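Postdoc handover notes: sequence design on the structure in folder B. Input tokens:
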């Protein structure tokens, strides 16, 4: 009976999710056009609305965030424990106060990217730590046995061995 209820519940969740996706696709395609996706912003004489600027700004924001957060996150994963889960609103308030009020950085892509960099660091750090733990101890011992210093061992043996886990942490942080 419990197994049947679990399958029934799962089926209902899947059906509701598919229903929402289909509803959004059907209702949303009426307002979508190539012009809407390629127009940079509101054009007063033509009264066109577009989202191209928003899409480009989002891509800039993600790229700048990853450029800042990936090296810091991978470095922090080597040396420190991860941060506790902090709600995103707290990150936003912190970024607003810290970067705008203290450092006098105007609201811009840089302010957003710096705030998001702090926000994605726990994901990058934690996932990278787990990836580093998967490298066999024999790799490290072999490098040390050959006379390699600790940082050289990390840079040439450990990090290349877990690069797929590091890339996974970057992809997860984008989400």
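Designed sequence:
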């Amino acid at each position: 009976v419990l197994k049947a209820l679990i399958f029934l519940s799962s089926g209902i969740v899947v059906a509701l999710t598919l229903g929402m996706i289909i509803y959004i696709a059907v209702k949303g395609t009426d307002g979508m056009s190539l012009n809407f996706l390629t127009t940079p912003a509101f054009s007063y004489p033509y009264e066109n609305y577009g989202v191209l600027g928003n899409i480009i700004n989002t891509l800039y924001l993600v790229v700048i965030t990853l450029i800042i957060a990936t090296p810091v996150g991978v470095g922090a994963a080597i040396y420190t424990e991860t941060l506790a889960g902090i709600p995103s609103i707290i990150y936003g308030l912190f970024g607003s106060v810290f970067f705008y009020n203290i450092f006098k950085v105007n609201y811009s892509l840089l302010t957003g990217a710096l705030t998001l960099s702090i926000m994605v660091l726990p994901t990058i750090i934690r996932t990278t730590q787990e990836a580093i733990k998967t490298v066999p101890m024999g790799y490290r011992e072999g490098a040390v046995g050959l006379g390699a210093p600790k940082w050289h061992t990390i840079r040439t043996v450990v990090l290349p061995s877990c690069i797929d886990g590091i890339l996974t942490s970057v992809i997860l942080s984008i989400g």
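Context for whoever picks this up: The CA atoms of residues 129 and 160 lie 14 Å apart. Don't rerun without checking with the PI first.
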